[in-house]
Amino acid sequence: MSKLFDVLNQVVATQNVLYIRLHQFHFYVKGPHFFTLHEKWEEMYDEVTADMDEVAERIIQLKGEPVATLQESLDQSVIKENEADKNLSDREMVEATLEGLKAYRDLAIEAREAAEAEEDEVTVDIFVDLQSRIDLNIWFFEAWLA
Ligand SMILES: [Fe+2]
Questions:
Q1: Cα(66) to centroid of ligand 1, in Å?
Q2: How many angstroms separate the alpha carbon of residue 26 from the centre of ligand 1?
Q3: Phi-psi label, residue 119: left if phi above 0, alpha if psi -120 to 50, beta otherwise
Q4: Measured distance CA(111)–CA(106) in Å, rounded
Q5: Alpha helices, H only, the chain
Q6: What is the residue range of 66's domain?
Q7: Residue 109 alpha carbon to ligand 1 centre in Å
Q8: Cα 92 to averaged position of ligand 1 atoms, centre (Å)
Q9: Which CATH number do you get for residue 41?
Q10: Ligand 1 centroid to 121 CA: how many Å?
């Protein structure tokens, strides 16, 4: 179970950092794609905070302790933040979003596999759903860049 808790906490930490990072892009994006990107990132940070809540509360249901501070999130997240990224171009922000989403998807797969090892079907289900939504966003941003 401790492997599952470790990876679930990495997910929560990553979701917290992703939430902030998506705001950074939402606030600072400039250029002719402002309206679509600004709105897309808003939709994504709203979704990621709901997902974070779901995973954290699943950890509690399993009698674990979810990450609940910014410092733990920064330490354990697979996505890193960078203050200077507010100066990226719109295209670079999309590329950075895509890079983060791919790391997030890899982590979701790892979490699903850890849940499968524990025969925890409810947690497996959470991550099947999460991965399908991350995959959808990866497709959107790849199509935007193409
Ligand atoms: Fe806003």
A1: 27
A2: 7
A3: left
A4: 9
A5: 2-28, 34-61, 70-76, 90-117, 121-145
A6: 2-145
A7: 30
A8: 20
A9: 1.20.1260.10
A10: 36
Ligand 1 center to 111 CA (angstroms) = 31
**Cα 140 to ligand 1 centre (Å):** 20
Between the CA of 42 and the centroid of ligand 1 the distance, in Å, is 6
Domain tally for the chain?
Answer: 1
Per-residue pLDDT at 11:
98
Q: How far is the CA of 41 from the centre of ligand 1 (A)?
A: 9
- Phi, psi torsion values for 30, nearest 5 degrees: -135, 160
CA 16 – ligand 1 centroid, Å = 17
Distance between CA atoms of 93 and 133, rounded to whole angstroms?
A: 20
Tell me the average pLDDT across 11-15: 98
Question: Under 8 Å CB-to-CB from 47, ≥6 apart: which residues?
Answer: 133
Cβ pair 104, 79 in contact under 8 A: yes
Q: What is the pLDDT of residues 76-131, one digit of tens each?
A: 999 999 999 999 999 999 999 999 999 999 999 999 999 999 999 999 999 999 99
Residue type, position 56, single letter:
A
